[in-house]
Amino acid sequence: MRPILDIQHVTHAFGHHTALHDISFSIKQGEVVGLIGRSGAGKSTLLRCLCALERPQQGHILLDGVDLTTQTERQLVRARRKIGLVFQHFNLLTSRTVAGNIALPLQIAGRPRKDHAKRIAELLALVGLEGFEDKYPSQLSGGQKQRVGIARALAAEPTLLLCDEATSALDPESTNSILALLADINRTLGLTIILITHEMEVVRRFAQRILVLDHGRLVEDGSLLDILRDGQENQTLHKLLADIRPSLPAFIAENLSPSPLTEPHKTIIRLVLSGDSATTPLFSMLYAHYAVKATLLQGGVTTISQRLSGDIILSLEGEHIEQALAFLKTATQSMEVLGYVPSHP
Amino acid sequence: MSPLILKLILQSTEQTLEMVLASTAISVLLGLPLALFMIATGPRGLYRLPFAARLIGMIVDAVRAVPFIILLVLLIPVTRFVAGTSLGTEAAIVPLSIAGIPYFARIAEMALREVDSGLIDAVRAMGGTRLTIIRSVLIAEAMPSLVTGVTVTLISMVGASAMAGVIGAGGLGDLAIRYGYQRFNTTVMFGVVVVLIIMVSVMQILGNALARWLKH
Question: Do residue A15 and residue A123 come from a single domain?
Fold first, then answer.
């Protein structure tokens, strides 16, 4: 199947500063992709290139087979109508009602005026704002404004929905409901969605695939599990992951030493579990086979992109520690020794 | 207050209103396109033409730098050409408008500049044409500030029209100077001031109410 979006060797610079460096990836119909990076990683530049507001200096961007980089400004105006954009600060026109805001892309696309009301009612039902037609944006909460933003982005039936930090200005509760809405839209309409964010927590919820951007380069393209695995070696990933990973309790972190101690000690490890390994009775196996007692210090099992996954920190103590660690390495997605603490501090 | 004085005040009020309303209407009608031109051709504008933007900006500032009383005299040939005469209430509308156009243009430019650039990006990204952006974003979003700008312009025109007596345009200011000041007629002076206060207050109240209503 032809990809809906195909980015080929995109490079873009502002003066001497290279904002994007040889970026290539492609996205299939119906995928939900999280594009994550810290501020200054090049996310915004890539976004502006994707929605044809900026023309990359090198490379090609194919949207549904049309190369955006070779189009004239007049042709681009048409191409942009195939992309729905959801903004961090909603960007709703304050001079127009909810219905007026959603009608704007319909007017731009030249839909007959008599069909507007029906389409607007449909969209408001989809985003859960029935009867809000005549309200003004100033009368809405942040979450409601973003729902209107999403309805507006969907109005002209785009082939691709780009969400630029769509939940960054919202409280946790609204963030949850907006993410649930986007997941729902992906499921029911089969719409391809790209979530651009600096928050790992946001992409963790439902992005099936994560692209990590750092200093203008694409450093990772895979599932969250891939990133959890690679995060041990890669500092960029490590930092991004810090938001969503359990961290060591302070009283342990203070006493942690990088090498084994001469006195009796506990070994502190981090495990990443997925699928089967998340439901294996690891603790009893450790005790039965290696006489190793494991204590859970932090973390637990959650659902990551519809699969059961665990990210936990354990303290181990017992006779056959080395064998136990070797076993864990094979039985789990990733095992990392964080350090050692004295048994009786 | 004698009926004669009352008649004089009434007639002058009428002349002032005629000058103020006509010149403000012309200032808005021509000043708004001028402001849009300055915004659109300026840096980050929709049609970047930096040279044209600077030239227009300089002309606007040059006209605004000339005190109105001087402009009134300076523009006599222009007034005669446009209005057919350089004297009277109708003739005064010409210099008042020429002073008002750049005045309102600068105010409107500020109002348009205040429009969130995110909104312009949003509509551009939707595939909106530049005309759509100007109409549905720039003008629509700046409307409450533009209305406030019109109010300010109206009130400035009330002040400026007081000097139009120099070219025989009449009006309240002229009445106050000739009767109130030069003939020491305190009643006329007082009456004129009261009428001016009421006029300006009503303009301000109506302007504020309209701007508030537009703000939602």
Answer: yes
C-beta separation of A137 from A94 below 8 A? yes
A97 → chain B, closest CA residue: B216
Q: What is the DSSP string of A179-229?
A: HHHHHHHHHHH--EEEEEES-HHHHHHH-SEEEEEETTEEEEEE-HHHHHH
Per-residue pLDDT, A304: 66
Intra-chain end-to-end CA distance of chain B, in Å: 45
Residues 6+ apart with CB under 8 A from A330: none
Q: What is residue A65's predicted lDDT score, i.e. its pLDDT?
A: 87
- CATH of residue A195's domain is 3.40.50.300
Q: Which residue of B has its CA nearest to A138?
A: B216
Write the DSSP assignment of A247-303 as a string of letters: ---HHHHHH-BSS--SSSEEEEEEEEEETHHHHS-HHHHHHHHH-EEEEEEEEEEEE
E strand intervals along B86-139: none
| CATH number, position A276 | 3.30.70.260
Kindly list the domain boundaries of chain B, sorted by start residue. Answer: 3-215
Same domain, A183 and A314: no
Residues pairing with A302 in the sheet: A309
Q: Clarify whether residues A183 and A262 are in a common domain.
A: no
**By the CB < 8 Å criterion, does B84 face chain A?**
no
CATH topology for the B3-215 domain: MetI-like fold (1.10.3720)
Q: In the prediction, which pLDDT does A265 show?
A: 87
Which tens digit of pLDDT belongs to each residue from A29-85? 999 999 998 888 888 889 889 988 888 999 999 998 889 999 988 888 888 888 999
**CA-to-CA dists, residue A224 to A28, A206, B13, angstroms:** 18, 10, 76
Residue type for position A286:
L
Q: How far apart are CA A103 and CA B126, in angstroms?
A: 12
User: Kind of pairing, strands A307-318 and A292-304?
Assistant: antiparallel
The number of residues making up chain B comes to 216
User: Does residue A198 share a domain with residue A60?
Assistant: yes
Asked whether residue A226 falls in the same domain as residue A91, the answer is yes
Q: Domain of A281?
A: 250-342
* Pair (A257, A236) in one structural domain: no
Indicate the pLDDT class of residue B211, thresholds 50, 70 and 90: very high
Q: Does A136 touch chain B (CB under 8 A)?
A: yes
For residue B48, give the nearest of B57, B56, B40 by alpha carbon: B40
CA distance B128 to chain A (A): 6
Q: In what order do the strands lie in the sheet with A58-63?
A: A17-27, A5-14, A58-63, A66-67
Contact B127 A79 (CB under 8 A): yes
For A206, residues 6+ apart whose C-beta sits below 8 A from its C-beta are: A32, A179, A182, A183, A186, A305, A306
